[in-house]
Amino acid sequence: MLRVLQRIVEAVNQAPDFDLALQTMVRQVKEALHTDSCTVYLADHEQRQFALAATDGLEIRSDKPIHVPFGEGVISLAASREEPLNIANASDHPAFLKLEHVVEDRYKAMLAAPVIHRRRVLGVLAVQQEQARAFTRDEEAFVVTLAAQLAVVIAHAEAKGLLRTAKQSPWLQTIKGLPAAPGVAIGEAFVVKPPARLSEVTPKRSDMPEHEIRAFRAAVARTRQELLNISDSMKGQVADETLAIFDVYHAMMDSASLGKEVEQTINDGWRAQTALKLVVEQLVNQFENLDDEYIRERASDVRDLGNRILAHLQNREARKLNPPAQCILVADEVTATMLAELPHADIIGMVSLRGSGNSHAAIMARSMGIPAVLGVDDIQLNEVSGETLIVDGYNGDVFVSPPLQVENEYRQLADEELALRQKVMQARDLPAETTDGVRVQLNLNVGLNTERDWLNDLNVHGVGLYRTEIPFMMRERLPTEDEQEELYSQVLEQFRGAPVVMRTLDVGGDKPLPYLPMDEENPFLGWRGIRMTLDHPEIFLVQIRAMLRASVGRNNLRILLPMITSAEEVDEAVRMIHQAYHEVAEELQCSVDEQLFEPQIGVMIEVPALIYQLHCVADKVDFFSVGTNDLTQYMLAVDRNNSRVASLYDAFHPAVLHALKQIIERCDALNKPVSVCGELAGEPGGALLLLAMGYRNFSMNSYNIDRIRWIIRHISAADLDEVLLRALASRSPQEVKQHVIMALENAGLGGFVRAGG
Description:
- With 757 residues, the protein is of the alpha/beta class.
- It contains 29 helices and 24 strands.
- Strands 9-16-15-11-12-13-14-10 form an eight-stranded mixed β-sheet. It has an eight-stranded parallel β-sheet with strand order 23-22-21-20-19-18-17-24.
- Helix 5 (209-234) runs antiparallel to helix 7 (245-254) and helix 9 runs antiparallel to helix 11.
- It is globular, with a radius of gyration of 29 Å.
- The protein starts with a helix and ends in an 11-residue tail after the last helix.
- 44% of the residues are buried.
């Protein structure tokens, strides 16, 4: 039966259009079960009825659509009960409904299974037979299993707008994606494709390795110059830290491992194009298999760089892109370089079929103030080219060819968004202080090199979280102490005079190093963070020594330990930090009081168990930092990168809020400073709740700094007590958000929920 099921599912997936897929399915199900009829009904929730979509066995005596009203018939009963109905003689059932223009009198037995996708009934799959009998358990299990498979097919068709009824306007079928940059944009879709695609390269061999290596090196040199030109063109257009995105590209080209691997593959007998394809695709796979969203998005950079080198290997002429004025950039995968090489004044919005809010394209879009929606996998590029699009970067919605009244409504929202953005910038030089005098420190989360003027421009207290994983991920060997020292020195110097919190290596398990493979069944609960580095003191000590050497004469280094679960882990980590400190002081013959200062040590609170161990850890460290992203995942047992359960991930969950309140209360009682470096701090509603709990130190990505500062300056901390009480008493994240939205609107800050709010 399993093989039959697989065959039917495969046939449905290969059907060229949705209607044919349904018709193929009902025919094959009828044959597989040896029944006399198989029918699919689709739910029309707006009209509150089920529409007969495909049948093999029912005799239809009308050209008009056949409908079953909600609440009537066996079909509606199966849907409302959300379970299969196995009826030996359907005509005798109290819920039986005789449909007009449908001949089914001869059928007795009926098995109806609801088609449900993410708790929403999409339709009903029914099989019927002339003989009055109950279907067997195997037959029932087969139909229920097939209905679950059909749910995915229908959901995708619905997202693509293939289920519209005659009374529905096209704009009602919103294409959903991930909101990546806030704002609203309306313009013509301008579809861009990469200059070349490694995926299209056919593997070929070569017996002239010297020639191929020369060609590869020349292509790399031309790519390097091309990226320099693109970067130069962006100066003055985006924030300085955004330009550091291009440092990642240059670092990849400077990496000995990338060029070495390609040239080694060429020496193994492959053409340069093939070698580049093999090496880049292997590296892309390594990144894409990671669970850390920020690190995983580097796969896009690697693929983009590989495609650009390939274009020069193929000696393609530099492309000239001429987008229409005020257009929406649309691509299979928008990259930072793609966005940067287009005329900045013409691109007012962005839609990408792949990617997330951590991609460099999303970071650049936010820096440029371009509304963006990513992860829109239910759209065909050739279908939207030249069409009018509305991009709603708040909710992740994309509308194709909307009617005039909808377009006018969104144009008004876009105007309000622009006015709000200009207003927010006016407070950049002012302190983050509430109307009743509560001062908040705003810090940055960073993972890239930055320009020296960045700190002064953004008016922040310092760096609340510096990720150190990138240099480790970009190599096929551990970076040396000297290499790490050089990188850390740049960051500490750029933020001289301000605290820089550097998180120790947070890899392992869900994001393994390419040269330290590990295979775990449950990586989120496995060998990661401090667990891995304590098991490898040679890695941990080298990193700490590099940080300490980089801090000589600066005294702004803070060290943060990730994934801490117990006091014993802190004891061991602190012992090694002290060991490294004395080693470096002795080697450099530094005066402890003048040049090499012993750094403050902090612990990340992201494992729920640590909340109840804070009193055991407090006397061993100087500060705490709450990572709300992982804390939420562990509190709710949800992998937010798993599409099946991602909707359950929500930092506004009342349980998460109660945990955060306990943390600040315990830290206050222990007299230990605590900051929040997760995404919740950069959310307008999240900042309000954290402020109400008593948190006074937030760390966030640069694009949220100005917005959060403005919000803080326009609310009273005392007025938030009631909001917090209601949030903590709520039963769901949605209820919490309603209270927060109301608080923002009452404070005249509804526009931060979305323009026009």
